[in-house]
């Protein structure tokens, strides 16, 4: 394919050809080959494709295909009816997060009043109860299974649609749809210019690897993937998937023994894998760093979140040579809550930006979707403006320049925070093309400016 008239690092527009997944030609005027895909950039900026360095793809996809049926979004029966009537498509509707404060202990007949023409199942937010309507009860042949433990019946002995601790049975009888389809969220990410993701789900194992591989081969997953996971995660054997760090979750109330974590780190390093340690408190971060210093360094070692990083911890980060993968979007999404709940001395050191850059700590950005917005441009804007949802500043001195914010998403997947991938002949053709010059785009940082996204030399999104 050929991209014409693209602005590269502020210079006058050039043409660029991609073949077999790499950039193979760059010049003032390149003539299209017969049948070649041509994208005219019209002077728009050409950037390295964006990489989301920490996301949970299957949870993100599931959140899209489920309807939130509880507070705060849904507070009463009327609102429940509204969200259910908004569901498009056909087939099963899957609701989540129901709570008794909405409409009490609802049963199948109440659900029939809301949805009668297609099967509906709603999960209670405790996770132990599903409530189904009659269309669903018919598919599940509930009448035949009224004796099954967990199938609740009314006074006349009819199953009332309330199913306790029957997840496994439900999955089997619905005809296991398998993991949620990632096609829609993958397309959404492509529209933001995202050409690669790091899936940071700690439990990823061989099973998830196979699912990712199938989705990539079926063209339903458009991004290349770096897959973190557990110690048993096998090597990927696919050019678009790479095995990533061994992921460790720390909880400051249940910290492991230092020797235990040191051993895990050493074991990962022996497998030629970096370690990724989830740290959201100061205590967790200090514990992780002292252990990392003990265990030694491996390229690509990383701290996830580093939500609270006081000044005195910065030299330790530097000394341990670890990268920080953070989520500036949380400043906007949760900032008002932080301002109410976080001790004042820590408010200025939440999800820092500039301090890491100035201390020479490699810093990368990510969404943590579905727990944060998947839009990297949103997080870039927040990295620059440092504003909470209601407009209050959080760590105003941590503000990055738009160029530094962009760089959070352009480092190589395996070396978060390292210098950005370059756009040169011979480089992998993972690209994000904007519809305007960088000079214009840098003051907006909005995903709407993405004109096309190219992964491995093929367009995966075009506006
Ligand atoms: Zn996460």
What's this entry about, in short?
Helices cover 30% and strands 23% of the residues. It is an alpha/beta fold and 463 residues long.
Task: Break the fold down into its secondary structure elements and pairings.
Blueprint: E1 2-6, E2 14-19, E3 22-27, E4 38-40, E5 46-48, E6 50-55, H1 57-64, E7 67-68, H2 77-85, E8 93-98, H3 100-103, H4 108-114, E9 120-124, E10 129-132, H5 134-140, E11 151-153, E12 159-164, H6 167-174, H7 183-191, E13 194-199, H8 206-217, E14 224-229, E15 241-249, H9 258-270, E16 275-279, H10 282-295, E17 302-305, H11 314-320, E18 323-326, H12 329-341, H13 344-347, H14 354-359, E19 363-365, H15 376-385, H16 402-407, E20 431-434, H17 438-441, E21 450-455, E22 458-462
Parallel strand pairs: 1-4, 6-13, 7-8, 8-9, 13-14, 14-15, 15-16, 16-17, 17-18, 18-19
Antiparallel strand pairs: 1-2, 2-3, 5-20, 9-10, 10-12, 11-12, 20-21, 21-22
Helix pairs in contact: 1-7, 9-10, 10-11, 12-15
This protein binds zinc ion.
Zinc ion binds next to loops.
